[in-house]
Design brief:
With 230 residues, this protein is of the alpha/beta class. Helices cover 33% and strands 21% of the residues. The chain has a single domain, classed as GTP cyclohydrolase II (Rossmann fold, 3-Layer(aba) Sandwich), CATH 3.40.50. The protein has 9 helices and 7 strands; from the N terminus they run ββββααβααααβαβαα. Strands 1-2-3-5-4-6-7 form a 7-stranded mixed beta sheet, sandwiched between helices. A hairpin with an 8-residue loop joins β2 and β3. It is globular. The two termini are 25 Å apart.
Length: 230
């Protein structure tokens, strides 16, 4: 049973030219909002020409991956991929301020220390007293409704995003998989996402330049089990 998200309104729109480290450039209309339920400064990036069913990616903030280029996760490559694909199709990237699957930056770094000691990313969150994934997509639904979006194609491998948006009154007409961004440094992380987060990647979809996995740990799992997007 759906329960529509509380109403939010658009606060401001401003065009920002974007340039990524690999040279890809585009422009986004960055949108801020009034009335988001958690009071945080979430943003929507309007890219391309959104149609009646825009392509949408709710992307959770990851300072280490998005800004610093950390290879312990796939967040930076997913952000880069999403901006280009949404620019081509027309839609929105929702940049959500919920670092570390909702536990915050400092505790995400604490979770990294526990992962170095042998826990996976979900077990580390639980060891710190959190749920495995504390992300809530109410603000994402608020932002989309404020932008006049009620039907969307969701760019994500994560079924929880589709489930939450559906319960919040939005119609997800298609779930579009992201590419698999696999590297020696994130094999264990992606394996945990696939097993614990129930992400469903297409193992045949890869980055344009597949990474060299010769240094990756040996694992009996097939690639389909070891990799997943967010």
């Amino acid at each position: 049973m759906s329960s529509p998200a509380p109403q939010a309104t658009v606060r401001r729109r401003i065009v920002v030219p974007l340039r990524f480290p690999d040279g890809y450039e585009t422009a986004a209309e960055v949108v801020s909002f009034h009335g988001l339920v958690d009071g945080r400064e979430h943003l929507a990036l309007e890219l391309g020409d959104p149609g009646a069913v825009p392509l949408v990616r709710p992307h959770s903030e990851c300072l280490t991956g998005d800004v610093l280029g950390s290879r312990r996760c796939d967040c930076g490559p997913q952000l880069r991929e999403a901006v280009e694909r949404i620019s081509a199709a027309g839609g929105y990237l929702l940049y959500l301020r919920q670092e570390g699957r909702g536990i915050g930056l400092y505790e995400k770094l604490d979770a990294y220390a526990l992962q170095d000691a042998g826990l996976n990313t979900y077990e580390a969150n639980v060891a710190l007293g959190h749920a495995p994934d504390e992300r809530d997509y109410t603000v994402a639904a608020q932002m989309l409704l404020a932008l006049g979006v009620s039907r969307l194609a969701l760019l994500s491998n994560n079924p929880d995003k589709a489930d939450q948006l559906g319960r919040l009154g939005l119609s997800v007409v298609e779930q579009v998989p992201t590419h698999v961004h696999l590297s020696p440094a994130n094999v264990a992380y992606l394996s945990a996402k696939s097993r614990n987060g129930h992400h469903v990647p297409d193992p045949l979809r890869t980055t344009a330049r597949p990474p060299d996995l010769s240094a990756a740990p040996d694992d009996d799992d097939p690639v389909a089990d070891r990799s997943a997007g967010g």
